[in-house]
Amino acid sequence: MAASAPSSSAAEPEPNSAYLRPPTSAYDSWCGVAHGCTRKLGMKICGFLQKNNSLDEKSRIGGSFKERQSSKNVLSCENRDPRFGHTETDFSNLFARDLLPAKNGEEPTMQFLLEVVDILTNYIRKTFDRSTKVLDFHHPHQLLEGIEGFNLELSDQPESLEQILVDCRDTLKYGVRTGHPRFFNQLSSGLDIIGLAGEWLTSTANTNMFTYEIAPVFVLMEQLTLKKMREIVGWPGGEGDGIFSPGGAISNMYSVMVARYKYYPEVKTKGMSAAPRLILFTSEHSHYSIKKAGAALGFGVENVILLKCDERGRVIPADLEAKIIDAKQKGYVPLFVNATAGSTVYGAFDPINEIADLCEKYNMWLHVDGAWGGGLLMSRKHRHKLSGIERANSVTWNPHKMMGVPLQCSAILVREKGLLQGCNQMCAGYLFQPDKQYDVTYDTGDKAIQCGRHVDIFKFWLMWKAKGTSGFEQHINKCLELSEYLYTKIKNREGYEMVFQGEPQHTNVCFWYLPPSLRGMPDCPERRERLHKVAPKIKAMMMESGTTMVGYQPQGDKVNFFRMVVSNPAATKSDIDFLIEEIERLGQDL
Amino acid sequence: MAASAPSSSAAEPEPNSAYLRPPTSAYDSWCGVAHGCTRKLGMKICGFLQKNNSLDEKSRIGGSFKERQSSKNVLSCENRDPRFGHTETDFSNLFARDLLPAKNGEEPTMQFLLEVVDILTNYIRKTFDRSTKVLDFHHPHQLLEGIEGFNLELSDQPESLEQILVDCRDTLKYGVRTGHPRFFNQLSSGLDIIGLAGEWLTSTANTNMFTYEIAPVFVLMEQLTLKKMREIVGWPGGEGDGIFSPGGAISNMYSVMVARYKYYPEVKTKGMSAAPRLILFTSEHSHYSIKKAGAALGFGVENVILLKCDERGRVIPADLEAKIIDAKQKGYVPLFVNATAGSTVYGAFDPINEIADLCEKYNMWLHVDGAWGGGLLMSRKHRHKLSGIERANSVTWNPHKMMGVPLQCSAILVREKGLLQGCNQMCAGYLFQPDKQYDVTYDTGDKAIQCGRHVDIFKFWLMWKAKGTSGFEQHINKCLELSEYLYTKIKNREGYEMVFQGEPQHTNVCFWYLPPSLRGMPDCPERRERLHKVAPKIKAMMMESGTTMVGYQPQGDKVNFFRMVVSNPAATKSDIDFLIEEIERLGQDL
Which residues get modified to N6-(pyridoxal phosphate)lysine (chains A, B) (predicted)? Predict the structure, then answer.
């Protein structure tokens, strides 16, 4: 919606309506055909398709809500033949109370939903169009003040469906197109159409994962998909357990809970005072959720020991062993090691086998946080980077990251059956009645720390059906190739410095861009201070211009650098080239 | 999809196509019009609408995938005029890889999404049609074996989009219609059209709540909505803090975490060993998530003390005080009291003011679990039941329950600012850079125990816009009236016994149905044993026949009883009547 440039696929303009933009798709063309041969038929559907394109156009060129409303009057598509009795729906006189389950609510409901779908499909089309901006940035105070009549405040009285549709358009207009081919800002990016369809269906089904009773199909899909994931991890026969959770941080939290339950089941009843001082280990490059779990679950952050990494961000096993010994000497009990498979910033893979050896030696739980890197298991070419994962006691794997599944979709896999249930069950009688007519082992709710649980499985299952394992493999390989392309392009390019040497293990490419003014300056506090400001400045300008988005951060003693990641299936080499050009364009005078 | 009876709103059948069901909506009628006057136009859209109705029809009357495929050949809508070049899309030769971002992927993408929407809108229409079954029950092994070709297994190779569409239909067919007017099985029921539209938009935007950077509009909507909720709770000026979490159990977990952080902030760093033995209090009727939180966070379940309730399920304050004193005498530290506003089974409201007095007296954190009852705050008539909630330190309130918002939508509200952030923040440099160009206090991620966080706010915000506060109030009042109707209907009816006396506080109506064979039998072990089996048997028959769904459970020493709840806006008195008739029909010979 935020595009300032015209659509890249423009065809012949529709002659009768000055306010219509040139048709950009088959749908617009059909409407053109409709006008060309008769006005008696298909007007309804044609009308809603055209009207929204036009409204959207008005919205893009500005104009208040009132102006946008009045723009409807000039739409040629609204000249209807009254004989058919299906005049343009006037949403300004319809309200939520007129929709289903209201009496006679079926037609307005269908009308309204189709209008919404039209808004969404237009958004989708433009998201994949590189001439559309990634975002139309505004500061919080600007949005709070209400831009062009977009009023975020809630009121006592209902608004018309017309206004609701405008609100939907505005919400998308001022948002960020995370599916845009040039959105590289997070580990989760892209907009998978099958996944999206799956999510639309999920919301329509609007049910809850806690019992087979009300989610029979989804519960079975979850069970089969988790088994498949465990097979891919390499556990014999795909045996074990698991559950989808609301994100990698919660999945990691599960791993710590289950480890504690395995070694000190009495903590469930008696609390942490029943156990000795327990120590969790994770690398200094690992995700902060291990520390969050340590804090939340009552271990305390100072009992989450950070391990040193090599220059590539991979944990140094010798440091782990030294710290295990140190902890034991202090009388503490080393409980748990998190090995990261694909660190957030460097994309590093910890050496799982060496860590597994230490876990066996010292009788500790091995968790692999593959939230980001787990997807590489789908690629025969890249899965060796997770070698040893089959020795893990638990694995976090977020299909919503590298596999392109819409948010949220994260799995915690546990090798030993029964632990999740044992750890979390409270046997709520109102949900988990033992005297149901079906096999109640299919009720999953007592494995979870949640009660109600959103259906996160369907979109993923549907994508797997639609792509096959081979489709995921191709996607993973392509993303890795693109990051290799970026790495090769900039590693010796003037004005670039790599944050770590050698080809990245994942799609993370970490680099500094040095504006001409900093090139050749020797390393000194002033250079570091100035370089630290470069990435934030370029990022701010990127966001203001809306052309692309990429993340940056400091790490340890390293000043702010860009972290490029590729997980978006829409990205191509041309988008990588664009990013580099854009960084240079925005950064040249800094 | 599982309906065996014809649609209740049938009109004139479409004469040309033997396989088409009678039109049930304006869309079918337009297609009829299309056939009546010209076959040249609107065929595309008409075609997809009709085809799916027909497929759906075939699916309802059985038939394999192949049969369903071949049924397409008889559709009159497919006789297209080749001049328009828009032949029926053959999805059997299209795959996920042909959709966007594929080159020329736009048209198949739009086609595919419209097909999906057609499946969903058909589902929605039927869900509100009382002649449709609530569910088409099958046992796990039946679904796993693959009914009528519905194969849940994942494979290496991709399936065609045709098969994906069939999978979508089958998924809905074998699911449970939680929006059906006769679905009373859970606290969350109904299918709000505005909320649904909001969720479709949310999935299309596919972003993450952790930073303003990538969710500017949603972050502000969350902020404004939480403020509004705090105002309604009664905290001066709506001040305070809060966050949407993945459900009431997690919201309750937050309350315990924040309470601990307020009184013993050193636990974050040093773990539970830094604190004395801390005690949490909650009623024996409260939700099991307080115990889950106690177990997970390291308190231990035996430090979650259950409080006695009166015969209506409301906590007895004197029991709380006695147990506080007892804990203190043992040298433990009473930390936290959970007062339930709307218990899961009885719908009971604990006396918040009396509990608040004790919390003040003993310097304890007061949490109100209004996951289920919080919605009553929207009703001037019923909000007195939560009197005293403004004295709480934290409140759980699930709009996805009584307010009819689609799953998941749960808020944890905290009266004191800064605690959520202090409790959970880990300052991840890669997300929460302090040197961004905007006011980074709008980045919410460090308040959460999650990292990525699903956008749960938009559907709720949009519903609030569309209904207004007044619309929620009307919905709440109507649900309470319906449950009053049920209560009045059965309290003196032959064959019914109320589980507790007096009018329910919430919509929960708890009752035993006594089959004629048990009536008049004196209370004895045999009667109890037989009565215990009645509700499960009736429930199983209900599910087999698919006509309605209602929950049952035992509670304390009470044998299985039905718990009826009303939160579904589609329910009417006739549905209440139906439920009673159905229980009597199914149960008369037990």
Answer: 401
pLDDT < 70 regions, chain B:
1-87
Q: What angle is formed at CA B42 by the lines to CA B36 and CA B43, rounded to 5 degrees? A: 80
Residues A218 and A165 in one domain: no
Query: Contact, B420 vs B447, CB < 8 A?
Result: yes
Q: What percent of chain A has pLDDT over 90?
A: 84
Written as six digits, the tokens of B192 are: 């709000």
Domain endpoint, select from A455, A472, A507: A455
The total number of residues shown for chain B amounts to 590
What is the model's pLDDT at position B431? 87
A355 inside domain:
yes
Residue ending a domain, among B166, B197, B222, is B166
- pLDDT tens sequence across A95-108: 999 999 999 999 99
The C-alpha angle with vertex A229 and arms to A226 and A234, in degrees rounded to 5, equals 130
B-facing residues of A in 142-181 (CB < 8 A) are: 143-144, 152-159, 161, 163-164, 167-168, 170-172, 174-176, 178-179, 181
Instruction: Return the pLDDT at B427.
Output: 87
A106 contacts chain B (CB < 8 A): yes
List, as one string, the DSSP characters of A290-340.
HHHHHHHTTS-GGGEEEEPB-TTS-B-HHHHHHHHHHHHHTT-EEEEEEEE
Q: Are B23 and B49 in contact (CB under 8 A)?
A: no
Query: Does the pLDDT value for residue A376 go beyond 90?
Result: yes
Q: Name the average pLDDT for chain A.
A: 88
* Claim to verify: residue B346 and residue B292 sit in the same structural domain: yes
Least confident of A280-294, A510-524, A541-555, B45-59: B45-59
If asked whether residues B83 and B160 sit together in one domain, one would say: yes
Distance CA B12, CA B24 (A): 9
**Within a domain: A367:** yes
Nearest to B547, CA basis, from B573, B507, B577: B577
Q: Please tell me whether residues A258 and A322 are part of one structural domain.
A: yes
Using CA atoms, how far apart are residues B140 and A167, in angstroms rounded to an integer?
43
**What does B222-259 look like in DSSP terms, one character per residue?**
HHHHHHHHHHHHT-GGG-SEEEEESSHHHHHHHHHHHH
Closest residue to B216, CB basis, from A175, A191, A458: A175
Domain that holds residue A38: 26-177
A278-319: pLDDT as tens digits: 999 999 999 999 999 999 999 999 999 999 999 999 999 999
Is B76 contained in some domain? yes
Q: Based on the fold, state whether residues B389 and B509 are members of the same structural domain.
A: no
**β-bridge partners, A521:** none
Are A428 and B289 in contact by the 8 Å Cβ rule? The answer is: no
What's the CA gap between A137 and A19, in Å, rounded? Answer: 26
Are the C-beta atoms of B313 and B348 separated by less than 8 Å?
A: yes
Indicate if B251 and B385 belong to the same structural domain.
yes
Structure token digits, residue A319 = 């440091």
CATH number of the domain enclosing A306? 3.40.640.10
Mutate to test the interface with B, among A430, A478, A564 (most CBs of B within 10 A): A430
Same domain, B158 and B258: no
Q: What is the ipTM of this complex?
A: 0.89
> Do B104 and B126 contact (CB within 8 A), yes or no?
no
- Is A323 in CB contact (< 8 Å) with chain B? no
Judging contacts by C-beta atoms under 8 Å, the chain B residues touching residue A462 are: 164, 167-168
Chain A residues in contact with B84 by the CB 8 A cut-off are 30, 33
Q: Is the dihedral of CA A357, A358, A364, A365 positive or negative?
A: negative
Instruction: Give the tens place of pLDDT for each residue, A205-245.
Output: 999 999 999 999 999 999 999 999 999 999 999 999 999 99
d(CA A362, CA A357): 9
Q: Is there a single domain that holds both residue B387 and residue B495? A: no
Cα–chain-centroid distance for residue A391? 28
Does the residue A257 lie in any domain?
yes
Q: For residue B478, count other CB atoms closer than 10 A to its CB.
A: 14
